Amino acid sequence: MSDYTIPKVWEWHQNEKNQFGNQPVAGSRFEQKLPVGEQPLQVYSLGTPNGMKVAIMLEELKEAGVKDAQYDLYKINIGEGDQFGSDFVKINPNSKIPAMVDYSHEEPIRVFESASIMLYLADKFDKFIPHSIAERTELMNWLFWQTGAAPFVGGGFGHFYYYAPFAQEYPIDRYTMETKRQLDLLDKHLADKDFIMGDEYTIADMTIWPWYGRLVQGELYGDADEFLKAKEYKNLKAWTDRIAQRPAVKRGINLEYKSIK
To answer: Who has the most CB within 10 Å: 32, 98, 130, 183?
Structure first.
């Protein structure tokens, strides 16, 4: 039991610090000048699951011989609040990584939210995305599933299991149950498939793997893979290992990010 009583009106106490500098207001907090490199695609990101999606996609495009998918990759240190600088907020008003600007057009195009970037790159270069309306819709089903489901894993399970200042049974039980339900869903879906879409490797795999594959590998939230018995999801484990062997994936999760300072 907790001795916390819900107040009639919530108030933010500015002296209370949190790990990622969150506040109940949006917008920039300081003036910032982000560097712009020589390549057409400028990516501002970090090696989190959401950031890895785009890094993997860009490396897969390189592996596929797409010469125009050249990029500069800059580190946005969310622990230091880089995401709240004025230049970054101009690219992504939501102050979340990753964010990208495509300078190959007469007017630069900003792209934010990881799934939006993945879809943009797939359409721009006509790679890793099916063409028929039925297959494209199925791929979109899984993209939207991931963007809706992963917050329960990260902001829910990951936060209360690994980041919260003290353990609380109710939220850990709640989000563990949901995370295991999602792992089971993927395991069942992959029972007769090599990839999310079947035989074809697509941006659906690249979008889902950094969250669920990395969780199965034991690369997220300390020993969460043991706590969740994640490796017992055999079909999901096989898919995880299959994708982990791809050269572009190996590069994508180990890229060096340039400093913005």
So the answer is: 98
Name every residue whose Cβ is closer than 8 Å to that of residue 17 and which is 6 or more positions away in sequence.
none
Quick one: 24 exposed, middle or buried, by C-beta within 10 A (0-12, 13-18, 19+)?
exposed
3-14 per-position pLDDT tens digit: 889 999 999 987
Cα-based angle 85, 90, 92 (whole degrees, multiple of 5): 90
36-57 tens-digit pLDDT: 999 999 999 999 999 999 999 9
pLDDT tens digits along 59-83: 999 999 999 999 999 999 999 999 9
Residue 128 identity = F
Of 120, 73, 127, the C-alpha closest to 98 is: 73
Strand ranges, E, within 103-248: 109-112
The number of C-alpha atoms within 13 Å of 35 and in the hemisphere containing its C-beta is: 15
CA of 210: how far to CAs of 5, 41, 51, 92, in Å? Answer: 38, 21, 9, 21
Q: Which residues contact 69 (CB under 8 A, 6 or more apart)?
A: 41, 58, 61, 62, 121, 125
Which pTM value belongs to this model?
0.96
Query: Would you say residue 191 has pLDDT above 90?
Result: yes
Contact call for residues 50 and 81 (beta carbons, < 8 A): no
Q: Which residues pair with 160 in a beta bridge?
A: none
Q: Which domains does the chain have, with CATH numbers?
A: 1-128 (3.40.30.10), 133-250 (1.20.1050.10)
Using CA atoms, how far residue 181 sits from 69, 97, 194, 233, in Å, is 37, 27, 20, 11
Max CA pair span of the chain: 60
